[in-house]
Batch of 3 targets.
Target 1
Amino acid sequence: MELLILIGATLIFLAISLRHIPADPPHIAVVTFLGRRLRKFKREGYRLFPFYPVIYNAVLINMTKKNQDLPPQVVRTHDLAELEINVSLTWTPNENYAIEYLNHGEESGVRNILADMVRERLREWAISVDRGPKNWEEALRAKDEATLVLIRDIAGLPVDLSKEEEKEIIRKIRMGDGVQPISQLGITLNRLNIGEIKPRGELARAAELVVKEKKEREGEKVELYHAMERIKEIMEALGCSYTQAIELFQTERGKVSKKITEIKGNVSDDVRKAIEQILDHWNKIRGG
């Protein structure tokens, strides 16, 4: 009889105390004792919480990785140019700092705090005379530098790190393999990357005009090169002077209306006939 009572009491205790912590998606459970959170957690599976929920209880935390793509961050450089910077992060709740994670509002709270931190650090970097770019053109090329600044400031890398250790930590974070704890937020930073840095507003329109003009200049250089090559071909084919070749080139392009009789210098009948054939050919092409 006593054995049955003992078995029954054990079964009742297990029924009251045994709780399941989900594994899909992965969770941990922060243990509470009489309503007070302990720096103790239990991983997924069936776990004992004696006299649940009065004595021991659990606060579940979803441990999946969180991807966070921030809206374009608007900053001003030292020369007061307005830029926008795209930033993305990946992070995971850190089980060793689970209480800090809960204190900051879990996922939604941490997302907001990270967005504020990124915004503040980027603005400080962009406008800084010492740490930031000298002007907006330099800022457009400073994606790597801005990424390093964010990782150092947000991840809070220890000051006693060697350069080699710091470089390796930053490399892993940029590749998405980071395991850098941010204890004050209760998370682990896995990845931080800066995408495109581009001008905004009037600066964007001005920059677009600069690019357009540059392309036009490059196009003019190519056109000039081909023109020079064509002039050389005319000189070699007709045995005429450089000036005559330029006049013929302009005529065949339709840029100058020129009669054969106006060509300066002595030109043989054979050369004249060849010129007439060239002009006749170009007139047909141009629909003349």
Target 2
Amino acid sequence: MAETTYIPHNDSLGTSNVTGLLFPPQLEAIRNINPEDMEEVFGPGLDIDIPSKGYTDPEWYFQTSDGVIFGIGWRYGQARLRGRGLRGTKKNHLQMCHPTQSQAVAFVEFLVSRLPA
């Protein structure tokens, strides 16, 4: 089985909060990630400045080698996993599917492995 690679990406369109896919250990792990550590390791994120909706920190997005988009962002200072799966079925090719739970867990494990302890 090929290993998934993560490529920095700047397309957040169509992503949504997929934090609910995480198990408690991964949820705790993303809660401990801060924007400063992300910038130190991955460079500047996408500037998000919508204080009225709680978005004031940058966000970082990555595309997996199989085309899924994952990101981490903060709303009201609370980390959230964002994601967008691949296009839907032939019947409804415009619909975007959510990433799977195993893909979400693998992405968080990737982030944690790259960030300072």
Target 3
Amino acid sequence: MNKLVLVCSVGLGVSLCFLYALFAGIFLEHLILSTVTVVELAVVAGQFIKVAGMVGHYRTQPPRAEILLWLLSLETVVELGIFVAYVATSSLFWSNLA
């Protein structure tokens, strides 16, 4: 591998990791846990499951586009299910969740 490409890749990777750590630190500093709602926790859990699924899948097999599309469209399918539940039951809970 070309040494220039390697040095640039390492430099870019380190700078992106630093920016991510800085953003995460600032975000966690301003986060007030008593105001976190169930919906926000569901969104964070969904994102965590999506990332864990992608990492777990791509560690065992080469990347396939249809798996990536399925994982990225998971929220749309869940939102559609919530909407159908609201239409079927007319419950205020499903309305607020949607």
